Amino acid sequence: MPTRVHEFSWPDRVVIGTIGVPGARTFYLQVRAGTQIVSVALEKQQSALLAEKIDDILDQLVALEGNPFSVPTSTPIELVDNDQLEAVQEQFRTGAMSLGWDPTTAQVVIEAYPIADVGAGNNNEALDQDGIEAPEMLLVRMPVGTARAFTKRTREVVGAGRPVCPLCGYPVDADGHVCTPPEV
Hints:
This protein has a single domain, classed as 2-Layer Sandwich (Secreted effector protein pipB2 fold).
């Protein structure tokens, strides 16, 4: 059965955003091109790691001797996006992701795949004509300036959560925190 691909080659918007309060936030990767919007849920750690790895790719390109690509070292001010998420309709919850670089278009490439839910029936999933769940994925290609803006925003969104305990490294809730420092 063919995979349903939600593909965005030159998106108008690519952001990580959240719904909910710190400690109970749901993170979304949202992509828009014209009127097509796709939102996929992901974990906070996936969001943070995605931003880190995109920055790594861009930093390696900047440091590359004879680099033919014009990669910004910081976020271009005209690409900063601090707006809220648009209407969110979760397409799927992200499991595996891959990240790459396409030198032919000078774009960062993100692929997101849903969590494989073996044996569980979910009425929200896309079904083919035989009633079998159709596999799907999100494919996003974004230019280097957009990628820098994406990582800046993602780091800010991830950092806007609960503060981290300096002793145990776990989040501190508004109603208090009891921890056991790690043993040395």
